[in-house]
Amino acid sequence: MVAIMSLPILLLVSYSLKTDQEYLAHPFTPYPLNLQFFNYLGILQYSPFLVTMGRTFALSITTAAITCFTSAMAGYGFARFRVPGNRRLFQLVIALLIVPSIILLIPQFVVYSKLDLVNTYWPWYLVAMGANPLYIFMYRQFYLGFPKELEEAAEMDGCTSLRTFLGIIIPNSKPVMATVLIFAFAAVWGDYIMPTMFLNDPTKLLGSWMVPGGPRQGDPIFYAATVLYILPVIVFFFFIQKQIQKGWIFTGISG
Questions:
Q1: How many CB atoms lie within 10 A of CB 6?
Q2: If 176 and its partner were Cys, which of 14, 57, 105, 142 is the partner (CB 3.0–4.6 Å)?
Q3: pTM for the whole thing?
Q4: pLDDT of 99-113, one tens digit each?
Q5: CATH number of the domain enclosing 53
């Protein structure tokens, strides 16, 4: 299964190492006859690609951080505070998991256009501020197993709920935070629907830059750009994979 799922990536890397002439003459050859890396140098010298990649990375990491924090606050509230309606509200959050996010795009577009927020990055930030049902569920499951003794000790020392959350809960939530962070980052980094709807120039973000209609598609230099496009997520994952595995275990996602 690993070999089968890795095959498209291996073919992508192989095509990115071909010359234009070889690609046109042998488009279905799974390996390059003349190995060369000029395609990567060419795309790295293409300044619009680098600017778009930097802009997309900045938006992805900031929205991921906001989503991570707001979802943590909501998950902690559902796990610890027993208030009237808590259970019903959490049932509503779970119900939102079955609602396809794509059907909300048209209502969101209408709202953002009324607020004059189209062609800005505010739609991404506002969605991030509203947290995410899946991430809220993950945080809640994690905090249900979090030892209450630490919070009780902080309360005895005079800490407020907010100070306890920021000073004790968040620093000890690295496994689930790492999982949420990579999910939220990849969701924005790989998205091409929202840029198409909310930006007058969708190529301002890399997801729309890579889909049909983008510059120089179908030749090896575009394959090199695609390899560079997926590389940050892969590198990001390998840096925090141990925390992600712990997050799957502690939140019950693997089960």
A1: 10
A2: 142
A3: 0.82
A4: 888 888 889 999 999
A5: 1.10.3720.10
